[in-house]
Every structure is written in structure tokens, then in C-alpha cells.
Amino acid sequence: MGLAGALGVAGATWAAQAGGDNRELTFYNVNTKETVTIKFMREGNFLPGGMKQINYIMRDWRRDKPTRMDPELINTIWELYQELGSSEPIHLISAYRSKKTNERLRRRGGGQARKSQHILGKAADIHFPDVPV
């Protein structure tokens, strides 16, 4: 997503907070086979319980270790979901990776960046199964 797309998402996030938006997402974790529907925003405010559920479904599944996922990432995913007109659960391929997991994957030649945004909870690899590429 380019700068214009990022600015559009930032504007949409502000509008959601100002407009009292309610937001939820359904994820299917392709690695753990878990499916969960999570309400993460009510009346423009992030719900701590919903964000905790997101942190868990997006955890480093190799180590069963969650982190605090960036709320702006979650809003970006929601905006993409809406913009693409998807209605199926979002397939979560990868989100948070601990430094140890990231380094192990790098050593195996997986192409992970040394300072990956996944380590910071600011990246997710997702797929919208009902949206053609």
C-alpha cells in the first residue's frame, strides 16, 4: 500500500473514532486451524478484550507467544476487508513473530527481514479467500 493508501486508512481510522464506529473481524489461522470472530471497536473505541483476542489469534504460534498487535494494523485489515467486499473469514498466515522465531526462519533461508515489522506486531500476512487476485 502506497502513501496515498496509508493516508486514506489513517483518515478512515479517524472517521471511525469520530463517528462512533463498531468493528469486528473473523480470522481463520491457517497454522492452528482456529477460527474466531472478534469485535475490536465499539463506538469508535478499541475494546481491550477484543484486542486481547486479536493478540492471541495473531500470536507467534510456533512458541505460543502473543504480543500487543498494533491497533492501526487491525484497522488497516478491517478497511481492506470492507474495501474488497470480502465476507469470508480472513486467512491469517503469519502475524507476530518473536525475535527467536524470526531469526530461526531467517537462518533457514525464508527471506525474513532482520528487523521485520512482524517482530513489532505491525505486520500480518493475510489472504482474503473470496477475493480473486
What does this structure look like?
The protein has four helices and five strands, in the order αβββααβαβ. The N terminus is likely disordered. Strands 3-2-1-4-5 form a five-stranded mixed β-sheet. 38% of the residues lie in helices and 19% in strands. The protein is globular and about 45 Å long. It is an alpha+beta fold and 133 residues long. The longest helix is centred in the first third of the chain and has 17 residues.
Structural class: alpha+beta
User: What is the helix fraction of residues, given as a range?
Assistant: 25-40%
Largest sheet, spatial ordering of strands: 3-2-1-4-5
Please count the beta strands (DSSP E, at least 2 residues each): 5
**Spatial separation of the terminal alpha carbons:** 15 Å
Ranges with pLDDT <50 over ≥5 residues? Answer: 1-18
Question: What's the pLDDT, averaged over the residues?
Answer: 87
Major β-sheet profile: 5 strands, mixed
H/E series: HEEEHHEHE
Instruction: Evaluate the radius of gyration.
Output: 15 Å
Number of helices: 4
Share of β-strand residues: 15-25%
Shape: globular
Question: What labels describe this entry?
Answer:
single chain; 133 residues; 4 helices; disordered N terminus
Structure summarized in a few sentences:
The protein is α+β, with helices and mostly antiparallel strands.
